[in-house]
Amino acid sequence: MSVNLAALHEGTIESELFGHERGAFTGADRKRKGLLEAAEGGTVLLDEVGELPPRLQARLLEFLQSRTITPVGGSAAMRLNVRVIAATHRNLPSAVSRGDFREDLFHRLRVICIDLKPIALRWGELDEIVHSCLAEVCSAAGRTVLRISEEVASQLEKHDWPGNFRELRNVLEYAVHAGTGPEILASDLPEWFAPANGNQAKTACFSESPAQIPNHRRREVSIQPLNFKSSMDNFEKSFLSQGLRSNSGNISETARQIGMNKATLIRRIRYHSLQTILSRSVRPGSSDVVVPGEKKPESTMTCMDLSAGGMV
């Protein structure tokens, strides 16, 4: 059982969670079980727990410590056996430091913590994420799973995804409904979808001002871009280059070693122009080699039947 606390009115959250007795407030013409009581013997997901008002944070903490609840307007406590999972998009440690979230409740909730990274930090998994989401969208629209063109695959990779999974799903839903063919083309993408081009202004990053740096040290200081995407690109290029060299340019071995999907690795090699590192000593017809001057293969972000899977 789950409840989105951000979607509830502050005045009704307490009765929704803990229930109420008849006559507890205006309109309470009958006794009503709360979600915690209804989940007895099972699990309840408190989504967006960071939106819980301070007064109700205290009530939730009391329940987590004592495992008992008292319905609104009631006097008898009730012991429950319920497992609680809490989720939030907020930075709770920051909220605690600002005084917006109770520190004792934060520590009580943080027994086993799973930090789900945003898409921007999961480039190696982008193929699986896109195909899984696309399979769900196509299924909901009553269409067979579509292929993704090379141009669209490139645009999806270049985008920073500030809206994370919701933005990705919106882009794919628009494309699935806008397109009519078996393949998603760039013309099927929404007009508001514009991958970052990386041409943002660069700023020098100094721990000291230039005037404060001694002459003998100035040659050691290099100007670095204060841009997340550019920095990630530079790191990824260096990381992939090192991985390919350590495996003598073998894509399959490199993919296994670094834990990246092979199709994604091939595309990232082309993106960073690392083809010269690749081994030429492969079997004829192997897809492991993408050498300079060769005709680019069709999209490696191929269609996979993932209708049984779900979004990560």
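(ticket continues) Second input and output from the same batch:
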Amino acid sequence: MKIIVYAPKNAESLLSQLEVALPHGIKLVHCQSREDVASRAPDAAGFIAAGGGMPDSAMLEELPQLRWVQILSAGADKLPLADLRRRGIRLTNAKGVHQIQMSEFAMLQMLQWARRADLHFSNQLDKRWGRRVPSGELHGQTAGILGTGSIGQAIAAKAQAFGMRTLGYNTSGRTEPHFDGIFHGEDGLLSLLGESDYVVVIVPSTPDTQGLIGKEQLQAMKPSACLVNLARGTVVSEPELIAALQNGTIAGAALDVFEEEPLPAESPLWELPNVLITPHVAGASPRYNERAAHIVRENLRRLAENPDGPLHNEVDLSRGY
């Protein structure tokens, strides 16, 4: 079975780990460009999207025998899901590789806001011994976490270790570990927002979550609350968020994702004093490829044993996650 490893850049580490104990009958073909795909592997049955390479509709059409796509991210919103579904191509993601680093990053952002680390850094640049910086604590505060999957649960566990109360929001209302309470539905979301000192957004990007946080939801938050968005920029209405930050509807925001990336220089977010900006790096880790390779190797093993059998982390193409 021929499997494309599509990686225009930075694929050496992943390839070396995938080639360890490669299952019998599996052949990996490293392609760095669309031309490579067309010339070297038009008969591929599998496609591993790595190193910044994602298949689009045109590329899928060039692979008539394709039956499986593996992505190294959790989110599948950049893929032509309708085309995959129409052709019966199975999709698996890398769910589970982000929970350590992204939960740590969420705690970093909450701690930075509580202790106003940005103001201390500004004083350092100005060589100012400023001890009158406002300071808070996480202990006793409430973290509202939108998304109760593996990352949300990891955030909740760390937040509880800091003595925080944890509330979760999901679509099912199902109880999950490390949450003191679970909310669902539109009214449930508003209730969670009203009780939370920190709102951490970690839901998948799907048609149902586009604009999940808009004017009504921002107005439901405490004036002292901080919004932390680690999901996708489209989940939060950026114009409404900017207005809420400017008029004091909420106290601040820590943003790692944006509607347009890179964030345009003319965006008001750059200059707002109550915003912490990072360039979509919450999921970065020196151990990313190691963790992703473990998932991919497991799916290669399963495909080699039974091409039609269950796969690890298979995505529901009708839902997008």
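Agent notes: Residues 99-277 form a domain with the Rossmann fold fold (CATH 3.40.50.720). The first helix runs from residue 12 to 18. Closing as not reproducible unless the customer responds.
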